[in-house]
């Protein structure tokens, strides 16, 4: 009787393990349905319709000027005044009309592109810079990734630099 019980036990154990795995898989979230920053920069959601997209800093080094790259999007029905305040630098103020997106760059190449250069970056490339984005009555603290010109896609965005800020 022990020989015929083994195959039945094996089938029951295998079926239980498969059912347990299916139950656990059903409880895990589908991460592809969650909003995320699929880029090098940071995403900051102030409200459902007001946000910062792909925000980052490009600089030659600590204490040097930095170019803020990314976009400020306003899908609301009102003009929104954004303020981006990186640690150790003067804040950047941008007014974004209703339903518009303003792209931030170190180069002016269109009506919807704003030259967004800060006077000094308070950390070295390869780290994150503390910052606060405000707008539409909301404030969000986040980290701006800091890059240098070693990646070819960011080399053209390095701001003109003369000497480190004191």
TrEMBL record:
It comes from the Bacteria. Keywords: Signal. Residues 1-25 form the signal peptide. This is Copper(I)-binding protein. It comes from Isoptericola hypogeus.
